[in-house]
Design a protein that fits this description.
The chain is mostly helical. The protein is 52% helix and 0% strand. The protein is flat. The termini are far apart.
Amino acid sequence: MNEDLKHTIAIAMDTELQRQAESGANRIDLDAMAGAVAAVVDENKPSAFPLDEGRRPDELNSNNDG
C-alpha cells in the first residue's frame, strides 16, 4: 500500500472517530469505520467507467436504472 493512501485512510479513520466521539458514542461503530475506509479506498481506485459517460452503479436508483 502506498504511503499517500495510508495517510488518507488514517485521516478518514481519525475523522470518523472524532464524529463518533462528538455524537456521544460509547463504543466505536466498526461498520461506520469500515465505511469510511472503504469510501477512501474506492475514491483512490481508477474508475472502471469514463467520467463523461452515463451513470455509475452507485448513482443508479429505481428512477434512472433503465
